[in-house]
Write the structure tokens for this entry.
Amino acid sequence: MITREKSEKGILKLNLKVSGENWKKAVDEAYEKNKGRYNIQGFRKGKAPRKVIEQNYGDTVFLDAAFEAIVSKEYGDFLDNNLDVEPADYPKVSINSMTDDGLDVSLTVSLMPEVELGPIQFNVKKDKAVVSEDEINVEIGHFIDSQARFSESVEPAEKGDFLTIDFEGSVDGNVFEGGTAKDYRLELGSHTFIEGFEDQLIGTKVGDEKVVKVKFPEGYPAENLSGKPAEFKVIVHKVEKKSLPELNDKLISFSTEFSTVEDYKKSIKEKILKTKEEKIERDFENTLIEELVKKAKVDLPKDMIEHEKKHIIEDFKNRLMYQNIKLEDYLSYINKTMEDFDKDKYSEAEKALKTRLVLQKLVKDENIQISHEEFHEKLHEIASMQNKTCEEIEKTLSEYEISYIQNDILMNKLIAFLKQKNN
């Protein structure tokens, strides 16, 4: 049975005592549950007596499983019967004694910190979205560029021309990995290659062979090339001149769904405006949350922050892994030490935890809940997007997906509440 020993700020100390009889029963149950895992010569799997298994694998072979089972059960029962206890993490467990007479264990539980919300009134100003002519013209420029025509030329290459080339790069006379390509199409002036490479190809013609000499910048991602001088043997196969069409109604009607230049410009303006308005709304909502969190008082335990930081770092490493990048290489590329990275992630974890706890407190205090109708309204929205019925969607939802939908609805309601409190 678990009893409370004492409580400190954010810490609850518990004691678990198990009688010899119950401890023996737990070990017997661990044997029955796990005996099938052990192969003993002369016995069918799962049929070897406990003493024989212990002689082969050690006297304590079933104690760990028994210990884990009995502590998990007793701690779970304690939480069920003490709803005022809100653990922030798994308890730290230490064994005082473990004998045939029973088990004596101490548990140290980090508790969820208390959250004190500040005044829920805000004076956050929301910007107004404005689209300039320059922004529209930039998009028009991209469109015209996409309609460019290319013609082969025997004239010397100029900036803006496209070359089709073979190249082979070497450092100290050795060809390096990733430095060779055939029939590569390169726009001169696009800064696709390292500084100086494209400039040296200006003036070349079809059939020319040229040695381009460059130097890789310090801090280049590939350490074997960083700061090193290199040579590229280049063969020019093709030079293409780019010509841009005139912007007129004919071009617009032929290449877009619109009939006139004015209609097309209007659509661009609306698109930019919508994007800006969406960003302004997101920034506005984030600022409201930041103001709420800034006013709140939360004393976060360091252990809790470290635990959150560990999850953040592991998630970050996994995302790098999918791109075949090691954390050490990434830090070298951005010129950061592991210590700096650790401090950044600690601050990130602290901010994330405080935000989460403050929002949970607000939801609880204001009794913000999700109704059955609201959940099914969201399901209907998802079903419509996928051309399915609500019943079809509901059958395929995992617990994680249900939780995600519920959190999305809850967050929208919480944001709506904060907006009501903004002057």
In short: The chain has a mean pLDDT of 91. The CA atoms of residues 149 and 243 lie 5 Å apart. Residues 149-243 form a domain with the Chitinase A; domain 3 fold (CATH 3.10.50.40).
